[in-house]
Write a structure and sequence with these properties.
Length: about 100
């Protein structure tokens, strides 16, 4: 019997609209209290949207109001600046070993 191939979850970036592996994207989450932040672990409770780890995708998602639509929240300049700051100071993702 051949080994089971694990299906890799896919999500769409709200900035560039490309489908990518869930692990390669960042989750932006609106907490039940209404606070918007980046969710590095992907486990925070609340409504989420996914964006690439590139600043250009985040900026496009903010400018085109995609994050506002997906999270059902009014995006302020302060929140947008905080998200940009968090992304700029994000540690580089650890390279994963090739699975064969």
């Amino acid at each position: 019997m051949p080994p089971k191939v694990k299906k890799i979850p896919q999500r769409q970036c709200v900035g560039c609209r490309e489908m990518k592996d869930k692990k390669s994207l960042l989750r932006v989450v609106k907490s039940p209290e209404g606070e918007v932040s980046l969710d590095f672990g992907g486990k925070k409770p609340g409504r989420g949207a996914y964006v690439c780890r590139q600043e250009s995708c985040l900026l496009r998602a903010i400018k085109q109001k995609q994050l506002e639509r997906q999270l059902e929240v009014r995006m302020t300049e302060e929140v947008a600046a905080a998200l940009q700051y968090e992304l700029a100071h994000l540690p580089a993702p650890e390279p994963e070993a090739d699975q064969q």
